[in-house]
Amino acid sequence: MSTKAKTTLLIGGFVACLGAALYPVVISPMLNPKPWKDLQKDARKNIDQTSVQPGGMRVWSDPFKPRPDK
């Protein structure tokens, strides 16, 4: 086997391992976000956002809706 073929197999193997490692973390949530949204909603249901907001900042709101205080 030539050096060029070994190098190609090595790089291809590295890319395949990297893709296999990143799939469940990056690609799967982008393709099917519903389970992740449901998991976040369930995990955060008992948290009062105003009590854990740092520095007296406002809780996140939709940037396209008008603010109620203006």
Please name the defining characteristics of this protein.
70 residues; mainly alpha; 3 helices; Small integral membrane protein 20
Give a description of the structure.
It comes from Holothuria leucospilota (Black long sea cucumber). This is Small integral membrane protein 20. InterPro entries: MITRAC7/Phoenixin (IPR027917). Residues 47-70 are annotated as: Disordered. With 70 residues, the protein is mainly alpha-helical. Helices cover 61% and strands 0% of the residues. It contains three helices and no strands. It has helices at 3-31, 34-43, 49-52. It starts with a helix and ends in an 18-residue tail after the last helix.
**Contiguous runs where pLDDT drops below 50 for at least 5 residues:** none
Largest sheet: none
Query: What structural class results from the helix and strand content?
Result: mainly alpha
- What helical percentage do the residues reach? 55-70%
Number of helices: 3
Tell the overall outline.
elongated
Q: Radius of gyration, Cα only, in angstroms? A: 22 Å
For the termini, the CA-CA separation is 72 Å
- Fraction of residues in β-strands: under 5%
The average pLDDT score comes to 87
List SSEs in N-to-C order. HHH
The count of strands amounts to: 0
Pfam families: MITRAC7_Phoenixin (PF15061)
GO cellular component, one term: mitochondrial inner membrane
Protein name: Small integral membrane protein 20
InterPro entries: MITRAC7/Phoenixin (IPR027917)
Short structural description:
The chain is mainly α and 70 residues long. It contains three helices and no strands. The N and C termini lie far apart (72 Å).
